Amino acid sequence: MHADMPINRFKHALAAGRLQIGLWSSMLHPLGLEAMGGAGADWILLDCEHGPGDPNEVLVALHAMQAGTATAIARPAWNDSVLIKRYLDLGVNTLLIPMVQNADEARAAVAATRYPPDGIRGVASGTRANRFGRVKEYFQKAASEMCVLVQVETKPALDRIEEIAAVDGVDGVFIGPSDLAAALGHIGNAGHPDVQAAIQAAPKRLGGKPAGILTPVVADAKRYIEWGYKFVAVGIDLAIIARASESLVQTFKS
Predict the structure, then answer these.
(1) Which residues of 180-204 are buried (b: 16+ CB within 10 A; e: fewer)?
(2) Pick from 31, 69, 145, 211: CA 20 to 30 A from residue 24's CA?
(3) Sign (positive/negative) of CA torsion 166, 169, 173, 178?
(4) What's the pTM value of the predicted model, to 2 decimals?
């Protein structure tokens, strides 16, 4: 049996300059992901940094998302080649790597997604990623469908954002607004003018690489898109449930 090489729709859309609207999953609950996956989003972030996700939960999440429109993007807990390898072998082809501080760390993230001699990804002959050995050209073509997004969310990283974006194999740069606000001395206040100025300037500093961001506030998301952001997450599953349930209850309690 032969199978076709999995195509990374998100990567190719970003490369073509098309806006990609996403959702954020902190819960990684399969039923929730199946429901969100049919909402028409271009991508859904599986948060294994601040959420409870592990490789087993990511596998279940991938199953739940199969019928939907969204590309699964996994965010590992750290820029760790062992964690990255496990997600890749499960079939994740887009990663968001947190807390990248400089070009060397960006290169390490890319290397973790590439087979030798271009990187350090371990070679397994029959994984979910290559349809259990049925994609015969997988080892030769995997890199062309791999999408590496790196997070800039500290002052040192912001100062080096041009060199981070210039790393070969980095497909996009994600601005982490909450951590960036904290790093700039305004924890819990991403709306502070200093933070907003940094967010506004970032897309112009990437040398043509696409910029991404997360905000559950509609007005903020529209402003960031106007500022040039190309992959924007506009809602978080936990926040959607919390705020919608609060609003519903208060409608009757008030």
Answers:
(1) bbbbbebeeebeeeebbebbeebbe
(2) 145
(3) negative
(4) 0.97
Distance CA 43, CA 152 (A): 20
Q: Are 69 and 37 in contact (CB under 8 A)?
A: yes
d(CA 152, CA 100): 6
Reported as a single tens digit per residue, the pLDDT across 160-190 is 999 999 999 999 999 999 999 999 999 999 9
Residue with tokens 């705020």: 243
- Which class for 223: exposed (0-12), middle (13-18), buried (19 or more C-beta within 10 A)? middle
Task: Say what percent of the chain tops pLDDT 90.
Answer: 98
Considering the candidates 2, 12, 50, 63, report the single residue annotated as catalytic: 50
- The CATH number of 9-253, from 1.10.4160.10, 3.40.50.300, 3.20.20.60, 3.30.450.40, is 3.20.20.60
